[in-house]
Each structure stands twice: as C-alpha cells, then as structure tokens.
Amino acid sequence: MFREMFYKWLYADMKVDDFEVEWEEAFEEFGLHEKCWANQMYEKRHMWCNAYLRGKFCTGYRTTSREAIPDMMKLQRARFDIRTHDRTATWQT
C-alpha cells in the first residue's frame, strides 16, 4: 500500500538512490504519473523525505505541517532565552 511506503520515506534511514528507485517503482505500481499531487510531492521531496534530510540540523524537530513550524520556533527561542538567562545569572553570582 502506498501509505506504508510513504511513511517509510518519511522516517526510514535510507539513501537518496534507494528512495529514487522505490519512488519510481511506486509510481509504476500505483499509476501515479497522471496524479498532480504525486508530482508535487516528488518536486518537494527535499522538504519531507528523510533520505534528503540526512545530515541536516533540525533542532530535534520534524514536522510536515507548515503551521507548526512557527510554534516550534517560538518554543525553541523561549528555551534558548531561559538557558541564556540562567547562565548569565549563574555567571554573575
């Protein structure tokens, strides 16, 4: 089923070449060549496919939702501010 393959591409540790082979096989198997959404997903594979995200620093967060990114950035900034403030206070005493 395509959903299981897609989850694998999202989370599995795999090489780009392996992903490309599996994507082409899935396109053939599920007849996705004429599907606009599938072509758009492939064009954006650098944003969601774990094979392309290997070695990228993501501050420990991963999401497929654009709406969640600003909230995560605010949370990360707040954590940094707290840590920086704590260190500054410790250094001043």
From TrEMBL:
<protein>
    <recommendedName>
        <fullName>Protein FAR1-RELATED SEQUENCE</fullName>
    </recommendedName>
</protein>
<keyword id="KW-0862">Zinc</keyword>
<dbReference type="InterPro" id="IPR031052">
    <property type="entry name" value="FHY3/FAR1"/>
</dbReference>
<keyword id="KW-0863">Zinc-finger</keyword>
<comment type="function">
    <text>Putative transcription activator involved in regulating light control of development.</text>
</comment>
<dbReference type="GO" id="GO:0006355">
    <property type="term" value="P:regulation of DNA-templated transcription"/>
</dbReference>
<dbReference type="GO" id="GO:0008270">
    <property type="term" value="F:zinc ion binding"/>
</dbReference>
<keyword id="KW-0539">Nucleus</keyword>
<comment type="similarity">
    <text>Belongs to the FHY3/FAR1 family.</text>
</comment>
<dbReference type="GO" id="GO:0005634">
    <property type="term" value="C:nucleus"/>
</dbReference>
<keyword id="KW-0479">Metal-binding</keyword>
